[in-house]
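Aim 2 progress. For CBS domain-containing protein, the working sequence is reproduced below.
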Amino acid sequence: MNDPDQFPEIIQFMQQAAPFPGLPDEALRRCVSQFSIHYLKAGDHSDRLQDPAIYWLRTGIAKITDKHLRLYDQLEESGCFGLALAGLPDDAKLTIVEDALVYRLSQQDAQTLATEHRVFKQFIQQSSSRYLRHANNPIQEQVLNLSLRQFIRREPVTISPDASAQQAAHLMSQLHVSCLPVQQNGHLLGIITDRDLRARLVAKGLPADTQVKQVMSTPVDTVDAKQQVMDALLLMSVKRVHHLPIIDGKQLVGIITSTDLMQLQQQSPIFIAGEIARQTELAGLISCCKRMPEFLIQLMAANVQPERIGAVLSGIYDSVTQRLLALAEARFGPPPQAYCWVVFGSHARQELHLASDQDNALLLAQEPSASDSAYFDEMCRWVCDALNACGLVTCPGNIMASNPEMRGSVKQWQSKFEKWLQQPTPQALLKSNIFFDLRPLFGEMGLADILSQQIAKQTQNNQMFLAMLAQVAAANSPPLGLFGQLKTEKDPLRGACVDLKKAGLSLLTDVARLYALASGTPAVQTLERLEAAVDQGKLSSQDKDELTLCYQRLLTFRQQQQQTDLQHQRSSGNLLAVDQLTPFDKHQLKDIFAVLDRCQQAILLKFAGGRG
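Predicted structure tokens for this construct:
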């Protein structure tokens, strides 16, 4: 570097970058004097990884991938790369994501520093573990678990709804972005994307001076800055959107896009959902779903919370179901009347896992004629068989739309629910429990809304129904024997086992469902139901926190067992091998069951006057 006037400012910056805080001032100053400065343009596939040197990013973003474009590393301000660093993979490629200013130190100068200063030598040697970690863990825990506030790349640039589409396109091109939030007086009104410009402006032949508000997407989904990257990934997957504004309170603070999530590459649920939406044949959908176990294993390896994995899996099977129904309509012709495909149970609660089966039904706008019934019978059989082929296996209890009893008009379904609500019996409620977890997936969604509103209205203050439901929820006790010992069952592959679904998760979801119906909340997910019960004064915060911990720990136990089962290439379910647990894990499991037992006694006291 020839300009010593730049030294103080560069030295101040480098004092924040590894390994320079550990270098003496004289060594740092000499090192900076040996820097050369380079500008790298966004989009360049640079050959600088073959250069025997080390580079530090002053500004910009770069990524290092293998030949299959799987990410090894993403580099931002103060990040470094170069052939002089140990452990760089042979197939590594460098791509500049955002215009970058970099400082280069030759390999010879770096080796001199390493000889003179142990901290610099250790920095070079330890860089190998960084690449190994990224190579072995393509879905990176540190990325998924970042808060969105930490993940924000830049301040959001907005545009007025009264601006022209041409102005929006020019600004997007100038900033190298694919979207712009649309704001007026600090209020987020919508978002305009490059896809909006193509589909709503160019494709329709509208003039360039068309106002942004005429072609923007609105309303727009948002995500809170306190949430994690995984939450945004899930929402983008479920909603099938590629841009999410990040808000703090009511203030827009950033944007996250599917491009930002390049770390996840082709294992991203957004990518998989997009692939699913493009399939035109059942064989293509089956092929997409065959990748599901590998994808879930990677999520598990990244220590993603089990409830989030369940939500991602549910979102993907939402996409599979929706695509199958679209293919079914193309195969069998337009439906003779409006319908809504709904899911029940764990799928409705967005809590699917590897051993889940189908629970679905069909709501019709009106009572079907003979020809209507014939059409829906053929269509539903094809869809349920196709779901089975895609990995969501058939329900042993035949709670599927292929069963004629699971198809009917909204009025017929209302009559079923009214009977369960007005004349509840333990036997009827035991069979109908699952139907109170209901979520629409495809078709005329308003049909399901009618049913959900009726349920919420008729359950909230129905003391007889709630009392009976409490008795059903407390009918099966957790597997604890005398003196708090675990009661197990035998499995030929796993030895002494506990069925986590029957012995724990089902008991907990039954309790959450009871509180949700008593609270009149539309929430379906278990943890959301517990939150809503606290908001309505039906459950204490302490009890909610205790149940939440139990729920998350039970899911973790099941996930760990499923990982083991996958490694041994055996079918995975809800059985937990007790003999494989540590003493601490066994103690935790007993504590969980003790909490559930106390909770069952509490709901009997609260809703059924203590009568079991």
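Residues 480 and 552 are 20 Å apart (CA to CA). This observation will guide construct design in the next reporting period.
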